[in-house]
What we know:
Blueprint: E1 2-5, E2 10-13, E3 21-26, H1 37-55, E4 59-64, H2 71-80, H3 84-101, H4 117-129, E5 133-136, E6 139-142, H5 158-167, E7 182-187, E8 202-204, H6 206-218, E9 222-228, H7 232-247, E10 252-258, E11 261-263, E12 266-267, H8 278-284, H9 287-295, E13 303-304, H10 307-332, H11 341-348, H12 351-362, H13 367-384, H14 391-408, H15 414-435, H16 439-451, E14 454-459, E15 462-467
Parallel strand pairs: 3-4, 3-9, 9-10, 11-13
Antiparallel strand pairs: 1-2, 5-6, 6-7, 7-8, 11-12, 14-15
The structure holds adenosine monophosphate and zinc ion.
Adenosine monophosphate binds near residues 42, 228 and 231.
Amino acid sequence: MKIFNTLTRKKDEFVPIEEGKVSMYVCGPTVYNLIHIGNARPMIVFDTVRRYFEYKGYEVNYVSNFTDVDDKIIAKAVEEGVSSDVISKRYIEECKKDMAGMNVKPATKHPLATEEIGGMLDMIQTLIEKGHAYEVNGTVYFRTNSFKEYGKLSKKNLDDLQAGHRSIKVAGEDEKEDPMDFVLWKPKKEGEPYWESDWSDGRPGWHIECSVMSKKYLGESIDIHAGGEDLIFPHHENEIAQSEACNDVTFANYWMHNAFLNIDNKKMSKSLGNFFTVRDIAEKYDLQVLRFFMLSAHYRSPLNFSADLMEASKNGLERILTAFDSLRRKKDATEAGEMTADEQKMVADTDVFREKFEAAMEDDFNTADAISVLFELVKYVNVVTANGQTKAFYQALEDKLQALCDILGIITEQEADMLDAEIEDLIAQRTQAKKEKNFARADEIRNELLARGIELKDTREGVVWKCI
Length: 468
Ligand code: AMP
Ligand code: ZN
């Protein structure tokens, strides 16, 4: 299996630290708002990487944090007149709902920065003792030039960085030994959440969180560290500096970075205001469509969000789900029986699709090619199936398709669920219309449902529906 490694800038053969196991850390969101679909890209991409490893039989220890202490969270808390805790808890819950909707598996562990302060204090202390960090007026800085390999991930040269920084030195930074030094711990400002430490009552810098949580839950050396490409510098560069200076071992063997989700060829981001939340998308589409859209491009290619591409993804996904429906309908209409020799041969012939699918995934998780192969298999299944074949044959083909869909995280039982939610939604709209004495709209909804084979009955307990 080949993985493009940002550290080496080439596709490296994957060799796990421990045979049969993969340890993976994916930098998670800062929780002060609903996540946007740019944030969803790493979630979906690395969930798929995880699923592929699991399909290959690896045991994956997947850790992804929530940054729940940060300036933006504090600002939002002040705006609403509540504590930071209320904000972060609320948006962690909302984020988990979005993840479930996109069929992103919960991590083995989702650590919270605020619950790991003890480990951060320890790591900062060790860095000070080893001469890699220093304290000035309650702030602790990492001494960047004490780590000789600084810049190895982002391929930045420390001298160039220093020269660049000298000209843009900002007020209040004079206390640093070097403009490239970054904060490990900073004193609180009035009204901010804080923890006690030997240096000041304060809170950790962002980078130290991930170094500590990765070490605690995965160990000093891990297989894969991942996130969006905006994290390469400074976040991941600084994580490497902290962890390797502290632990004296390689922090992560493979660094994976997804490209941006863009809109009009600009990075989708909260600060630019050019974003759609996952919730916005859920109003119009099943989130499976969003997942399918994200996987339709290679994760290292920029992906431009557009209504057309979402429609194309919707149609593509429907083509796959229709194949499942058709197989299941045929299967249900047939008696159990042994597969014929011809059928066995046709099932065996699907191996070539599985092999091609795997080859695409083994080549740095090329989900775009993998999806093309899935379409080829769908086409093959549609061609070789007809009414009156054996139940075992339909089942075997369904299993073959299902195995590939599982890797991509596509839920194939979706149709029924999607329909259920839709029906409930229409019923609620009808009830509301009746309340507002908008009987024309109420009748329209009843007829729309009837046309789709759903009959409504008004009972004393409320509206019940049945398929006709
Ligand atoms: P943040 O909450 O901004 O720290 O982002 C959480 C994760 O989402 C990080 O891995 C970011 O790199 C990633 N991310 C943010 N915006 C985008 C985008 N437009 N496209 C792809 N990834 C993004
Ligand atoms: Zn991180």
